[in-house]
Amino acid sequence: MPRLHIPTFAEGNDGTLYCARGDRNIQRWDGLAAAWIDAGLTAPVNAVTMGTTSTGLIYGNLYAYQRYVALDGRVSNLSPVSTELVIAGVTKTITNVTNATPIVITTSASHGFSTNNRVKISGVIGTRSANGIWLVTNITATTFSLQNSSGNGTYMGGGTVRQGVSQIDYSNLGDASSDTRIYKRQILRNKDGNVNVFYVDKELTNLATTTSSSTNDEDDLGEAVVLLGVNGEDLNVTRHAEPPNYKKVIINHYSRLFAVVDAPYKWGGVAVTNASTTVTGINTAFTSVMAGWELFVNGDATTSYTVSSVNTSAQTLTLDTAYGGTTDPFALYELRPARSATGLDSREERRTLYYSESGLPESFNLNKGVTLSEDHEAGEMTGLMPIQTRLYVLFENRIYRLAYSNEPADGDSVEASWRGCVNQRSWSIVEESAYIMDRQGIYIFAGNYYEPISDAIQPLFERDTKAKYQINWNHQENFFSVHDPRTETIRWFISLGCERFPRWALRYHYRIKQWCLEEYPFAVSCGALGDLSGVPQLYCGATARRILALGHGHLDGIPNSTLGTIRGTATASTILSISDSTASFASDSVGFPVQITSGTGAGQVRIISSATATKLTLVEPWATLPDTTSKYQVGGIRWKYRTGWFRFLQSGQREVRGMELMIRPTSLESYMAYRKCLDNSDTAALEQVSASYTKANGLQMTSGEGDVLIQTTKATGLFKHDTDAHRGQDSDGIRYVRYEYEGVTNAEGHQLRNVILHGVLA
After folding, report:
1. What kind and span of H or E run contains 346?
2. Are residue 81 and residue 194 in the same domain, yes or no?
3. Mean pLDDT across the stretch 236-250?
4. Does residue 562 carry a pLDDT above 70?
5. I want to staple 253 with a disulfide (CB 3.0 to 4.6 A). Which of 295, 386, 438, 580 is the partner?
6. Rounded to 5°, angle at Cα 739 from 735 and 740
7. Other Cβ atoms within 10 Å of 595 Cβ, number
8. Domain containing 120 — which CATH number?
């Protein structure tokens, strides 16, 4: 399956949800629409062509734009401006102007005007008050007066008079019907003498038409659209551009949408042929947005090819120039957005953040980006983190604070921390402090200081090839964290070993400052805090399009524990199945885990691929084949609690070694196991019993095994196990012990209430 970028989401002030992925347009969803749609509006590319018809009251030197409008009132940028239209329905040369009240105009030829016609006079020297727009009164064939006028000087020559037209004809509008975001098209034009304010002349809901006409004179024009503010600020010319489609991280901060982090595409491979313009993707997911991007092949950072078009169904790229390298049936490559629009080189662009206009989260002016200073130690930009009024820019190894009042471009960026963040999803805010993961570990960031908190799990972050568990940083883009205020915990979902998607979580209880490593039977790719019956609930996305309510119930992935058999004892098994002749398994158990809770093969977890009433077929084979001693459970959460290392007492007296445990009893049959490890060994020490037996105190031991089973249905919930007695010697004997407790929950869950260790130093 081809790999896609990990999306990020941001909620606008009006509740609209935005999604960015970096290889397609940023999208929006208002909770009501049937599907996501592209955010923003594309601007019309055609300059309007203007013409006129007949004579009338429309006059002046005019220009026109067109723009698109969405159903919710959002607007696009303006199209290119039209060429100037000089209205000249009737043009006459003036030969005389009286310095009187009213002014009388004489023309060289018959003017043809009727009383109350509107005309424009310009170029008069001397009696300058005659210049302007007037209603006329017809006197003779060559004379007329200007209503409500008064002369202000002796006529010295010059002047023309023009009558307006009755209709303006617009053409070359272009067909916009294919863009479902567009609700209507507006044609804007100016009034004579003002090119800074335009007015809505026509609104067209027929988006396929390429022509229109208007008989509106200046008094009939609609809404005013101011192009530039008094201080030269762009109000409507370029501020409504679409969000940048090559940035994969978005956040909402103070009614602005911010977009950062370039998303180069380099997954799979490409087949390239010398002297050919066709590049074929292999296990790729090219999108139409990549048209115009630059292609780099086999690590050659100096030679690039511009992609002129993308065939998304065939997964081929067409280059604007033929490939000049060596033919390669499977080449490594990288696709990066071209930078011609912004004028920044690729290094500058990777340090640049863009932001929308205030209150207009889908209107971006790409000329107003913020480019941070280069820091060779910072690594790549990974995201943005808002903490109340502050906005922090995250890099792999640094955090910068962006301080601004009105315009982010006018603000300053200062270094805030020498620690960084893995990706945009690996931080959580709790009580104005951020809990962040980078490659060094996990730490608390409070704006002006940071405090490491992951000492207890630090071996996971160290490059120790002998370590049992180690974080797989090759897939760090899949990591994420989520805060659960109900349990006062934060989980960082990570990949260990060779796993690609997170199947483990580092859980931190920030009140008692304790860590726990959780393992899940399937990949967990995302998480979010929601609501369940009025109570905060943590939801996680798992395989097979399942959404899991974490901590709600105790059976992994089982939608309804009353449907079918959940637990029992195996009557037969094969390498890819387990059977129970007395069972009645539910058909909807496919995709859920089945666990061996005790007996032969205990601890194994497999995913169910198909189910009949008495047989479960598995995705992967058993490592140890279960037998008739094996108890199983469909679903269930496997947990493990491990103490630290404790030193045995060496008092010279005979000291009893062992442990006491108090649990919450369960009403359903269930087992826990405990084991002890000695002197830095990860292998459980074997119990010294000659034969398998079950004690009356609820403990079950098997000869040759290290696990002691605890029957959780014991009414008192109290267990005591003395393992041996020992008197300290000077010889090199056993010195340290560590206890582990492990189980698989049933529908009730397990709860350890108290653990007391005997024979150790406190």
Report:
1. helix 346-350
2. yes
3. 91
4. no
5. 386
6. 150
7. 23
8. 2.40.30.180
Coil vs helix vs strand at 219: helix
Candidates 455, 506, 500; CA nearest to 482 is 506
Cβ neighbours, 10 Å, residue 51? 12
Greatest CA separation found in the chain?
Answer: 136
Q: Please check whether residue 728 is in contact with residue 652, taking contact to mean a CB–CB distance below 8 angstroms.
A: yes
- Residue 372 CA to residue 331 CA, distance in Å, equals 33
The pair of structure tokens assigned to 485 is 């205020």
- Write out the two tokens for 236: 């409507």
Residue with tokens 């997170």: 502
Task: Out of 553-567, 584-598, 744-758, pick the least confident.
Answer: 553-567
| Residue among 32, 502, 21, 477 nearest 263 (CA) | 21
Instruction: Starting at the earlier edge strand, list the strands of the sheet with 593-598.
Output: 567-569, 631-634, 593-598, 605-611, 615-618, 577-579, 572-574
Q: What is the DSSP string of 78-139?
A: PPPPPPPEE--SEEEEEEEE-SSSS-EEEESS-----TT-EEEEE--BS-GGG-EEEEEEE-
Q: Is residue 254 in some structural domain?
A: no
Q: Tokens representing 93?
A: 């040369």
List, in sequence order, the alpha helices (H) in 458-538. Answer: none
Burial of 623 (0-12, 13-18, 19+ CB in 10 A): exposed
Question: Does position 730 have pLDDT exceeding 70, yes or no?
Answer: no
Give the three-class secondary structure for 731: coil
Q: Are residues 215 and 279 in the same domain?
A: no
* Mean per-residue pLDDT over the chain, rounded: 89
**Which of 378, 414, 376 has the alpha carbon at shortest distance from 397?**
378
Which residues neighbour 422 within 8 Å (Cβ) at sequence distance 6 or greater? 382, 396, 437, 438, 439, 476, 479
365-380 pLDDT per residue, tens: 888 889 998 898 999 9
671 and 722 inside one domain: yes
Q: Give counts: helices (H), strands (E), the chain.
A: 1, 63
pLDDT reported for residue 167: 93
Number of domains in the chain: 5
Q: Is the pLDDT of residue 128 over 60?
A: yes
Q: For residue 191, give the DSSP letter.
A: P
Amino acid at 307: V
- Tokens describing residue 744: 């698989």
Indicate whether 488 belongs to any domain.
Answer: no
pLDDT at 560: 65
Domain boundary among 163, 197, 212: 163
CA triplet 340, 342, 348: central angle to 5 degrees?
A: 100
Per the CB < 8 A criterion, the answer to whether 105 and 161 are in contact is yes
One domain for residues 148 and 290:
no
Q: Tell me how far apart the terminal alpha carbons of the chain are, to the nearest angstrom.
A: 54
In whole angstroms, give the CA distance from residue 352 to residue 261.
8
Q: pLDDT digits over 146-203, tens only?
A: 999 999 999 999 999 988 888 999 999 999 999 999 999 999 999 988 899 999 999 9
Q: Which of 95, 442, 408 shows the shortest CA–CA distance to 253?
A: 408
Task: Please indicate, yes or no, if residue 486 is contained in any of the structural domains.
Answer: no
170 is written with which tokens? 């617009």
**Residue 184 belongs to domain spanning:** 49-86+167-226
Q: Which residues neighbour 190 within 8 Å (Cβ) at sequence distance 6 or greater?
A: 62, 63, 197, 198, 199
Asked if residue 272 and residue 302 are part of one domain, the reply reads yes
Q: Are 109 and 204 members of one domain? A: no
Would you say how long the chain is, in residues? 762
pLDDT at 2: 62
* Distance of alpha carbon 58 from alpha carbon 60, whole angstroms: 7
Strand partners, 505: 493, 518
Q: Is residue 473 part of a domain?
A: no
At residue 728, does pLDDT exceed 70?
no
* Helix ranges restricted to H, 132-236: none
The answer to whether residues 517 and 638 touch, using CB atoms and an 8 Å cutoff, is no
Same domain flag for 159 and 301: no
Q: Do residues 658 and 713 both lie within one domain?
A: yes
Q: Picking from 193-197, 271-275, 320-324, 342-346, which range would have the lowest pLDDT averaged per residue? A: 342-346
